[in-house]
Write a structure and sequence with these properties.
By secondary structure, the chain is an alpha/beta fold. The protein has one domain: 3-Layer(aba) Sandwich (Rossmann fold). The protein is built from ten helices and six strands; from the N terminus they run H-H-E-E-E-H-H-E-H-H-E-H-H-E-H-H. A six-stranded mixed sheet has the order 2-1-3-4-6-5, with helices on both faces. The longest helix has 18 residues. It is globular, with a radius of gyration of 19 Å. GO terms for molecular function: methyltransferase activity. It comes from Pelomonas cellulosilytica.
Length: 243
């Protein structure tokens, strides 16, 4: 970031009432999304506070920073070797979001899934953060590191890389308040917001599938059988470590 001023560490912010509120919503979404995604190899990049692969049943699961150390712009996987990649706010914090997204597209198999969480600049939380940046005084509401990426902007990027969005939703409609009692008082707005102004939630969830023109499903099935016999040798998942 080029602007100067008070800063909040992301891990510390996630322990605050609004941080826990955001994390709880994201955990609920990702638990439901990945439970029925099948394959052999899944990877989460960023935000270790979110246990994004806990309900997924793929035999090989990695969390970058815990199970393996790597540069997000140069992932230690062969091309077309992963079935699922999860990016919880990783694009916002990347040095170059375009480079990271292209690298993810490289390592995903045809028909592989990508899940992204992002903070929505077109929300009350985004507005408060941007006003605070302009004033350059006081403590920012959200961590200062990173840049918001608009929902429709990200969809355009995904389309250029031949991703097809198959599911998307917004959440976290309560105002940008700091204390739990005040957040609790605004709990009623969740249902109203999701019904009347759904695209104004503070965070968005996108699930996309990598499409490759001319790919035959028979070929995909054969590739997955081969992948099951020879997994990418980059790290051990938690189950393997216990053996």
């Amino acid at each position: 970031m080029t602007d100067k001023g008070p800063s909040i560490d992301l891990a510390a912010w996630l322990q605050t009432p609004p941080g826990r509120y955001l994390l709880d919503w994201e955990q609920t979404q990702v638990d439901a999304a990945v439970a029925d995604l099948f394959g052999f190899h899944a990877l989460q990049l960023g935000l270790p506070e979110l246990d994004g692969l806990s309900t997924n049943r793929m035999p090989h699961r990695w969390l970058a920073g815990r199970d393996l150390l790597c540069d997000f712009d140069a992932l230690p996987f062969e091309s077309a070797s992963l079935d699922l990649v999860l990016l919880p706010h990783a694009l916002e914090l990347a040095h170059d979001a375009h480079v990271l997204l292209r690298e993810v597209e490289r390592v995903l198999r045809p028909e592989g899934r990508l899940i992204v969480f992002g903070l929505n600049p077109a929300s009350l939380w985004g507005l408060r953060q941007n006003v605070g940046r302009l004033r350059r005084r006081g403590e920012p509401y959200l961590p200062r590191d990173g840049e918001f990426i608009g929902y429709w902007r990200l969809r355009d990027w995904l389309k250029l890389l031949s991703f097809e969005v198959e599911a998307a939703r917004f959440g976290v409609y309560r105002p940008p308040l700091r204390t739990q009692p005040w957040l609790d008082r605004w709990q009623w707005i969740e249902g109203v917001g999701s019904r009347w102004w759904p695209v104004l939630g503070a965070v968005y969830f996108i699930q996309a599938i990598k499409r490759v023109h001319g790919t035959r499903m028979i070929g995909l099935a054969r590739n997955k059988r081969l992948a099951a016999k020879k997994a990418p040798a980059v790290a051990l998942n938690n189950q393997q470590k216990k053996k």
